[in-house]
């Protein structure tokens, strides 16, 4: 990282206290009988993809990346490409396509370049890719990525296991990635893992989540996705974590990313919606699991999220039946039934 980059990033960190205070001042919450209503007066940049309305929920489909990265048997590139194309055709406006990580660490993502070359890029659809370092970013740019996701963790042990460095080292590494991504005109999304618990350390202090999230935001991420990587959180814990994080970051720049290991994902998403979050990550057919979080099951199934949202007055733009068929198809390619209960119910009719 050049001296100029370090100093601009450090200046950003130093101004964190001041901007946190401003964020607090510009945002007030009131309780109605059933839901927490967020009154936003903060006009800072929000996501470029969706109108910040209270009834539209943007779904970030992570199945082709988070869903498939943990599969033991190598999945043919053409299957991944067909999955991504079908998800976009089902109305998803963000389909996380792959990750430019070390193939020694995650062999399943070793065909990232080929995946990006072969997908049909539908107008209006974003195909972000994960980039852990500058090497990954350069490969992503060469592959024509328009958006990248950088990822850190609120747990020291998980950071070491996942990306082989401490949290503070990761922040420096990711700042270099963000600087180069911005210079290349790419959009950047940020992830924080272990927001409710860590497979190695147990409970995680929400203030650690807020610190990493704010660092990623200061680097230029337009949105921070908060990952309950091992699915241990429960609604009140998720809301308590959001309370702390929202003191540092506008809720309009937060997304929720729930794994369903303990069957809490939909409840946690609903609790996040009550808090004002309007971006939800999910994985078709509930595919997935993290290679560095033993026992973690997949993300919440996108089909189940869409069904819940649409029954509660939210719009998603997703064709649920088409999505359910896509989930059933990829599950059969992987040799198992779909993990979406909604898809099973719909398709059995
Ligand atoms: C970060 C590193 C690379 C550090 O790994 P390292 O071993 O410390 O890196 P290194 O710089 O020493 O390089 C080691 C080797 O990897 C190569 N290498 C290095 N970087 C790259 C790259 N980008 N692309 C391709 N190759 C790369 C590099 O060239 C070298 O090759 P060699 O000289 O030995 O032949 C590694 O730990 C890594 O790739 N980790 C990624 C782990 C991962 O993908 N985890 C899953 C995604 S995160 C997640 O799922 C959570 C999330 C986001 O979904 C949210 C949630 O649920 O919480």
Automatic annotation (TrEMBL):
The reply on keyword Kinase is no
The record's EC number reads 4.1.3.4
Source taxon at top rank: Eukaryota
Q: Which UniProt keywords apply?
A: Lyase, Metal-binding
Please give the InterPro entries that the UniProt record associates with this protein: Aldolase_TIM, HMG_CoA_lyase_AS, HMGL, PYR_CT
Protein family according to the UniProt entry: Belongs to the HMG-CoA lyase family.
Identification of the protein by name? hydroxymethylglutaryl-CoA lyase
| Organism for this UniProt entry | Coemansia asiatica
């Amino acid at each position: 990282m050049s001296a100029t980059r370090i100093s601009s990033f450090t200046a950003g960190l130093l101004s964190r206290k001041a901007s946190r205070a401003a964020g607090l001042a510009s945002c007030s919450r009131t309780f109605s009988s059933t839901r927490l209503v967020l009154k936003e007066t903060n006009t800072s940049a929000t996501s470029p993809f969706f109108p910040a309305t209270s009834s539209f929920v943007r779904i970030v489909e992570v199945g082709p990346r988070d869903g498939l990265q943990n599969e033991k048997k190598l999945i043919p590139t053409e299957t991944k490409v067909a999955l991504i194309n079908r998800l976009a055709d089902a109305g998803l406006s963000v389909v996380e396509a792959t990750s430019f990580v070390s193939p020694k660490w995650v062999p399943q993502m070793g065909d990232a370049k080929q995946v990006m070359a072969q997908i049909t890029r539908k107008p209006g659809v974003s195909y972000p890719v994960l980039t852990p370092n500058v090497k990954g970013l350069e490969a992503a740019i060469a592959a024509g990525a328009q958006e990248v996701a950088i990822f850190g963790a609120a747990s020291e042990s998980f950071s070491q296991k996942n990306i082989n460095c401490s949290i503070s080292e990761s922040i420096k590494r990711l700042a270099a990635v963000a600087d180069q991504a911005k210079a290349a005109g790419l959009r950047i999304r940020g992830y924080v893992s272990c927001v409710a618990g860590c497979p190695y350390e147990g409970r995680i202090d929400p203030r650690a989540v807020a610190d990493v999230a704010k660092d990623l935001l200061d680097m230029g991420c337009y949105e921070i996705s908060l990952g309950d990587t091992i699915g241990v959180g429960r609604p009140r814990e998720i809301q308590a974590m959001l309370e702390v994080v929202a003191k540092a970051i506008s809720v309009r720049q937060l997304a929720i990313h729930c794994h369903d290991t303990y069957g809490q994902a939909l409840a946690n998403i609903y609790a996040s919606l009550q808090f004002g979050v309007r971006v939800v990550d999910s994985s078709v057919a509930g595919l997935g699991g993290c290679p560095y979080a033993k026992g973690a099951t997949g993300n919440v199934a996108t089909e189940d999220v869409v069904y819940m949202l649409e029954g509660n007055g939210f719009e998603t733009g997703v064709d649920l039946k088409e999505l359910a068929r896509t989930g059933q198809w990829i599950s059969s390619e992987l040799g198992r039934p779909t993990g979406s209960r909604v898809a099973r119910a719909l398709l059995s009719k």
